[in-house]
């Protein structure tokens, strides 16, 4: 009887182990969200920089170190030392960083920040978004890409224009930096929704721009403007990421928050406004679902595997674990306790 019990419990443990490894075991939307990251370093476009040195122009606070303290995942963007004391370059020091949260194939959305490097509020908001998504993986549906800082070097140097041009006026040229983002990320990854987040010098506080004459862009822009109490406008500018993506029949928009007359700063609440625009966007696409009644809120089955996913990858050295394994470990301890109890009980009869 004792051996039979051991055999049954062992089989159950193996079953739990198999389900833990397979993030699709419970089907899409069950909390089985893969989290991965890499960077792009296109030839001729050196964008890498040590972002821990970036300071607010007014307060001189190290902006992104401050916002990084809000969560674990964005640590991989920074230069750091591993557990053996070896120096490791962060994701941002190597090029244009990108994060991917994959629960199922559709819908596919991307959040882009830092097209202009000196617009800190949207970049800080993207940091917060990445950590929020990581901590709430069970709320994710489909696939979300986040580029929190399109050009870390431009952010470090507090530059709007880079490589000799305004990157948000030449995205329709595939040989430009922003053209690479559209072609090598948005189109190559089969993204359907594109949100490009900025800050501005304006008397208006929050704006949403649509690509004029493109119904999909106008539809998503109107909804997000309404959700976030932002003003809605049509953008006539050719070559923006929003217009270029709309020309490819994608649902795209540009979000702006006011940040004074001096770029390279974060005025009070501006990063929060940008963050709320991002959440409204992902709510519209149904990528980030607040109603989790049909999901396992414990995250069981989630795979936070921060391993090599191709492209130009920088290895992860932070203790970011698979969500399922703590549960497996607890079950294993329970198994040992039960075995110990039965063994003790048998020997004392």
Helix content range: 25-40%
**What is the count of helical runs?**
10
The secondary-structure element order is: HEHEEHEEHEHHEEHEHEHH
CATH superfamily label: Zn peptidases
- DSSP, total strands: 10
The CATH class designation is: Alpha Beta
Shape: globular
Main pleated-sheet profile: 8 strands, mixed
Q: Could you give the order of strands across the largest sheet?
A: 1-4-6-5-7-10-8-9
Topology of this protein?
Layout: H1 2-21, E1 34-40, H2 63-68, E2 80-81, E3 87-88, H3 91-94, E4 96-102, E5 108-113, H4 120-135, E6 143-147, H5 152-156, H6 177-187, E7 193-200, E8 206-211, H7 215-227, E9 231-235, H8 241-247, E10 251-258, H9 270-285, H10 324-347
Helix pairs in contact: 1-10, 4-9, 7-9
Could you explain the architecture of this structure?
The chain is of the alpha/beta class. It has ten helices and ten strands. The strands form two sheets. The chain has an eight-stranded mixed beta sheet with strand order 1-4-6-5-7-10-8-9, with helices on both faces. The protein has a two-stranded antiparallel ribbon with strand order 2-3. α1 runs antiparallel to α10 and α4 crosses α9 (270-285). It is globular, with a radius of gyration of 23 Å. The two termini are 15 Å apart.
